[in-house]
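Before we proceed, please read the two lines closing this message. Tell me what the token row says about the fold.
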Amino acid sequence: MGNTVRIELLPLGRRLTVAPGTSLQDALFPQGVEFPCGGRGRCKGCRVRVLEGGLPVTPEDKRVLTSKELAEGWRLACRAHARSDLRIELAQWELSILSDNSTFAFTPHDGLGAAVDLGTTTIVAQLVDRRTGNVLGVRMGLNQQAKHGADIMSRIDFAMSAGGQTTLQTLVREQIGGLLAELMSEAPPGAPLERVVLVGNTVMHHLFCGLSVEPLSHHPFDPPEDALKTFSAPDLGWHGLGNATVCFLPCLGGFVGSDVLAGIVATQVNESDRLVGLVDLGTNGEIVIGNRVRLLCASTAAGPAFEGARISMGMRAATGAIAEVALRDSAMQCRVLGGGAPRGICGSGLVDAVACGLDLGLVRPTGRLASGDRWTLAPPVVLTQTDVRELQLAKGAIAAGFRLLLAQWGAGLEDLECLHLAGAFGNYINRASARRIGLLPLPPDRVRPAGNTALLGAKLALFRESGDGFEYEALRRKIRHVPLNEDPDFHETYVAEMQFS
């Protein structure tokens, strides 16, 4: 066995180099592959097909996959280890992914459509056959605007400088146009691109659409324009894509963007008879509480701790990051992505570590470290008192948002039937740890990882044009944006929620 193993990922076209014996879960998670059951081998959402090389069949493979799937080379990535060079196909990007989703009801339309999730950090575009619902291709990339600021407030600052907004608008329009051109180069000959639907947070919406971000730079942080914006491909300089209609779905108010609107549609929060919730945990945490009658939404400045930023040894979920901390016989065990020596800690590991620290008495409910101002997790990775405070600020903001929205409903946590967790971080956070620190104070069985609800909602919109009975304005009339900073109880609630459970 050599010192390294090479893995080629299709259809992404990426090539990885890892140490022999590396868990495929550790290798694929940083690439955006989702593990819906948390890597426990209980579902087949992470399955991969071996095209070259070999992965032994595990007991979990036999239990979850059919004999036909096993014979075709399918394996559960969460139970596999790379011991030799591999060429694998990712099931999450196979062509039949949409038709396999039993909750995806649609009316067939002619031509092709493209769904785009325009995130602050990454952009994901999928090409969809609107007659069948099949995904024909996917492209992802880091948002090129990031060279002018990693977070939304730094983007706003740059946009307000001379020529800044034009620069950011040009960068993102050209990048998305390039991704779509790549996708169309692989499309069936003669199939036209008819419709493109984009979703994103309020700042991404404004920067793409050419709307001033100045109103978002100061109180009350409420943009005057948030309607559905429609363009044609030539309007955007997207030549070679025909005359496709390009729609950016509307925002909901303040820093609650169209990605949240798409998430509401994807999770069907607006169709529930019972009180349910949706939350996207990130630098700008968005929360929705409601049912089919009405919905309340809010954003809260959680800070970047959930993404590993502003943590002394924080990092994104990549090779070398402590992604999980668990107690075994009263001792902490750290799982490092990639299986090697730790280099830092990502958001999910941070939540786990503090939950374990609370159980061991190493962290007090006030957030103070029991011994000194440094805590060694796994050399050389340490957590400082400031790191724990950063997590308190983030968790306090989210928990306070929940409390205040529920209070406006005249309801309590016990009345919330379920909570949908959107986004990658929501998919991989340990729900028991989140409850232990008071971030998500619900029983784990009432918290449901929902994946990329923004992208799913954009896909649904490809099939729900005017005349199909899906009216965004009708839905938005049911939704009320709640500016938390104007609630007289916000400060007191926020301070109280900074305490750990």
Q: What stands out?
A: Residues 385-409 form the longest helix (25 residues).
